[in-house]
Amino acid sequence: MGGLSSEREVSLVSGRACADALERLGAKVSRIDAGRNLADVLTKLKPDVCFNALHGAWGEDGCVQGVLETLQIPYTHSGVLASALAMDKAKSKAVIAAAGVPVPGGGLYNRFEVARDHVLPPPYVVKPNAEGSSVGVFIVRERANRPPQEIVEPAWTFGEEVMVEPFVQGKELAVAVMDGKAQTVTEIIPRTGFYDYEAKYGEDGSEHVVPANLPRQVIERCLDYAERAHAALGCRGVTRSDLRYDDVNDILVLLEVNTQPGMTPTSLAPEQAAHKGVDFDRLVLWITEDAYARGGAGGIARIGETSSESVR
Fold first, then answer.
1. Is 246 annotated in the active site?
2. What keywords are annotated for this sequence in UniProt (predicted)?
3. For this structure, is 242 an active site residue?
4. Comparing 47-51, 113-117, 141-145, 270-274, which segment has the lowest mean pLDDT?
5. Does CATH place domain 85-102+169-259 in 3.30.470.20?
6. Among this protein's residues, is 237 annotated catalytic?
7. What DSSP string runs through 283-305?
């Protein structure tokens, strides 16, 4: 948990929640604030399985997954390629679109070009190509006189290219996929204007409606798109797909797939699991068991057979 990305604080919260859950289940847990000496720490520790609760760059983009592959330590969530693909918004959109899932248009532009003049007709969205938690995201409204200038300030650390795509009006939706199966649809109603970092993690920043109050056919499309995107990227374990639904024009698009979604009892993926009858501790156990089993080890108990010996 922790790590080096802009989502470090969120990761610490996820990591503490998952570690607490595993300890409640009787596991022996070592809590590692992941730094550049991670390989040395893990080599000395020799864990049976690594629960990767990192979010964002380095921890979610295939880098740490490569370290764990090299050390031959079973780890949770998606592998190297799926993680790298999903973190790169431009590449993942191409893969997802090829699987027949609608995605927003737009593309990658140099940040200085974007700051000079509108590269798309407003409204549109400007965001880093490889960040999460809505870090560095700007919505350029319909009557905006100029693009966001923050992207050319010295404090900008999110790369020279930015993703610019049309803004889809309507509802913010999310679908968790567990073991390849979509769970349900959550509608997120932000209280800060849009679903930014504060809306995601601030106290009372947003309201979650689980399941979303949508027509059955829209629910089915959401579930289908999430499962197809998860499969197209080669994901495993638990992912969360973010979608937008324009209920006036009946336009549904998938924005991105998060390969390591937030993991607290009130996060979107655990909320959906709870709605399907899997409480937080059992969800964390399932993710850990899934990683352990894929690592080639046998004899681990399955959910429903849990005891203090379920996870070594």
1. no
2. ATP-binding, Cell shape, Cell wall biogenesis/degradation, Cytoplasm, Ligase, Nucleotide-binding, Peptidoglycan synthesis
3. yes
4. 141-145
5. yes
6. no
7. HHHHHHHHHHHHTT---PPPTTS
